[in-house]
């Protein structure tokens, strides 16, 4: 088995769900946006688009679980390089003990090009909504 190189990663419980990011800041931003949904999830920064990191961490999770992870998600940037990476890895399937298999999922940001941009836009929109609500309440008085 290949050695798993130390990458920035955060584990919430058992590594049943793996999520891969292009950078540490994107990992932290996605975690902030989705903190309620991170039970039994392992967040891993690839520090770029590195298929070997995905492969090695899937093997490491299999070793720890004594089974295949339930899901593997590629949470990369919503740009040409990120989409090409997802397309390349979508050709591979993760095989379970019972001989069934699944494809890796893609989780691309819907606002902005990366997860940090999405977090910034989400926070900005929330702040603007709060401000409008306060202004509306002041006008009602």
Question: What does it look like?
Answer:
The chain is an alpha/beta fold and 141 residues long. Helix content is 43%, strand content 19%. The protein has four helices and seven strands. Strands 1-3-2-4-7 form a five-stranded mixed β-sheet, with helices on both faces. Helix 1 (24-33) packs parallel to helix 4. The protein is elongated and about 65 Å long. The mean pLDDT is 90.
Summary of the model, kept short:
By secondary structure, the protein is an alpha/beta fold.
Separation of termini? 69 Å
- Sum up the overall morphology in one term: elongated
Mind describing the biggest β-sheet?
Answer: 5 strands, mixed
Helix content: 40-55%
In the predicted model, the low-confidence regions spanning at least 5 consecutive residues are none
**Structural class, judged by helices and strands?**
alpha/beta
How do the helices and strands line up, and which of them pair or pack?
Elements: E1 9-12, E2 17-21, H1 24-33, E3 41-45, H2 51-65, E4 71-75, H3 80-89, E5 93-95, E6 101-103, E7 105-106, H4 115-140
Parallel strand pairs: 2-3, 2-4, 4-7
Antiparallel strand pairs: 1-3, 5-6
Helix pairs in contact: 1-4
Can you give keywords for this protein?
about 140 residues; alpha/beta; five-stranded mixed β-sheet; two-stranded antiparallel sheet; 4 helices; elongated
């Amino acid at each position: 088995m290949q050695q798993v190189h130390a990458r920035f990663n955060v584990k919430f419980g058992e590594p049943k769900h793996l999520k891969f990011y292009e950078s540490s800041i994107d990992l932290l931003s996605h975690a902030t946006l989705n903190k309620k949904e991170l039970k039994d999830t392992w967040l891993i920064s690839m520090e770029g688009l590195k298929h070997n990191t995905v492969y090695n961490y899937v093997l490491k999770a299999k070793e720890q679980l004594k089974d295949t992870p339930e899901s593997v998600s590629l949470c990369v940037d919503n740009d040409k390089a990120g989409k090409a990476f997802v397309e390349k890895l979508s050709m591979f399937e993760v095989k379970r003990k019972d001989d069934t298999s699944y494809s890796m999922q893609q989780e691309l940001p819907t606002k902005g090009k990366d997860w940090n941009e999405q977090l910034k836009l989400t926070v900005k929109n929330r702040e603007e909504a709060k401000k409008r609500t306060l202004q509306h309440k002041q006008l009602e008085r």
